[in-house]
Amino acid sequence: MKSKAFFSDPTSIVDHMCKSLAQQNPSLRYDASNKVLYRPTSHTSTKVSIISGGGSGHEPAHAGYVGEGMLDAAVCGKVFASPNFDQIISAFDRVATPRGILVIVKNYTGDKLNFGLATETYQAQTGVPTHIVTVADDVSVPYSRGKLVGRRGLAGAVLIHKVSGAAAARGLGLEEVAKVAQHVSDNMATIGCSLDYANLPGGGDLPSIPENTIELGMGIHNEPGAQRISPQPTIEKLVSQMVKLLLNEDDPEHGFLKFHEIPHSKSELALMVNDLGGLSVLELQAIANVVLECLKEEYDIKPVRIYVNTYLTALDAPGFSITIANLTPQLFSSDINLISLLDAPVKSNTWATCQPLPAVIPGTRTPEQEERSRSPKINQEILCDKRIFTGILENILAQVTREEPNLTEYDTLMGDGDCGTTLLAGATAAHALIEQTDESFTNLVKSLMKVASSVRSGMGGTSGALYGIFLNSFVSAVQKNYGEIQAVNIQLFAKSARQALETLKGYTNARENSRTLMDALIPFVNEFSTAAFTDNETAAKALERGLKAAQDGAEATKWMQSSFGRSTYVGASAGDENPTKGIPDPGACGIVAIITGIQKVFPVSN
Hints:
Blueprint: H1 10-24, E1 29-31, E2 36-38, E3 49-56, E4 67-68, E5 73-79, H2 85-95, E6 101-106, H3 109-126, E7 130-135, H4 156-169, H5 174-186, E8 188-194, E9 214-216, E10 227-229, H6 235-247, E11 269-275, H7 281-299, E12 305-309, E13 319-326, H8 338-343, E14 347-348, H9 386-414, H10 419-431, H11 444-459, H12 461-485, H13 490-505, H14 518-534, H15 539-556, H16 586-599
Parallel strand pairs: 3-5, 3-6, 6-7, 11-12
Antiparallel strand pairs: 1-2, 2-5, 4-14, 8-9, 8-13, 9-10, 11-13
Helix pairs in contact: 2-3, 3-12, 4-5, 6-7, 9-10, 9-16, 10-11, 11-12, 12-13, 13-14, 14-15, 14-16, 15-16
GO molecular function: ATP binding; glycerone kinase activity; triokinase activity
Domain DhaL: 387-600
Pathway: Polyol metabolism; glycerol fermentation; glycerone phosphate from glycerol (oxidative route): step 2/2
């Protein structure tokens, strides 16, 4: 069924919502072209900036928490869809300070990759320190099911916004603010349930959860829950089961929240009972009391702070979630009082009780009038050989052009068929830089930044984000490592490639044997590094060895079970009759094509 709604356009409703919040709080600005709500920040501010965001439809998160003492900017994607790179970069531009930026994202692939790409790009281009904290508080996802992608991020993210914003307002540095956020995230758990799915603005009819049935652990984007319970239990039995999943440390599949031998009654716990969007205030408050009684009677717990309201929704889903954060001081290796951070004052539209407005709103500058610029900070003027740089770009394009039909064929069998064309678009965009008169390719860092930006823009999608994260991290590493090595040599590139690979691993759980591009990239970087540092090989020999390792890795993917991407659902090694058995992963083959192009510039002498 589909419920009635006043808005049928999912884009305009987000725009209207953000404009409304900006008009209610005169300290805020709204960048309509990028859907960014923010507090104007001086580029000389001594405060760490806090940025969050994600798909819309979870209001009041995240835009409702922009204000003094909480978020400095929220990036609003389309309904239930991650914001893109350009939107996120716009938010960075608006609020970046020399003290750095803390980015808070929920654990969803689109959010992690797009925010990760923007973070690595911004840090590489400006030198502004950045840090990401990923919130993954859903205890309904068992260890065995979520071991690769991890748990989903739910309403607990709002508590991270609160403590991080308060820590930043006190003047703490980026490292300390990130430590606060990460600790609370690591010691927090959430579980939700719903009677039915959410209705998307402008969406079609959705199937309904059957009558007399509860979806336990349903996600905030209509994702299936951990289980359906029918007949519908009493609210007391339901809450008891949910709280048990939150607090039972001995549950081998769900025991995420730890107390470290401190009794429940001696622990300092914050409780949040959150409306997923479709409950009345009457029902939500009644549910909260059932939760409090359960905690007291079954666990001898009396929370030190209780939050009952609408904090993070799934549009109009008729459900609720329970979050428990363990803020016991003995678990935190710092003298920062976490409870005091929760209590710190906030001036935002939806956390504070009210926001007083002056009789006359002072004249303000529009986002278009405000300064919005970045001055790339290049740590060193590192000279490089223009001939070699342009030769690499030319050879990569030539090799990818040759391999594109094969990559497209492979991806048609096991994916959506765009791997070859996407990689070719990235190689073409990078090659186009050769014709630009403002880039001479004699400055290594500037040239690498240009390539990273072109590849990201040209490719787009998940592949573009992965390549972009690796390349931008590589740029940062080259700048840093050149200060130590003081030479443009094989060791500089090998060390930087290894560091870029480690950064990329922080944004994806794909590793070798996952049937992805990592099956070629990881062996290449490892062998390239060994050749450069352990065996003191020449650049040509190190690239030759690295290419061979990448080729072997790509070849091995023919017989692997897919763990990531669309090919996961094809069942590539499900049986002899499967048409994808014996087909190499196109992403891994794409890495081989790129390395082949680079290696041809450095042929091994016989």
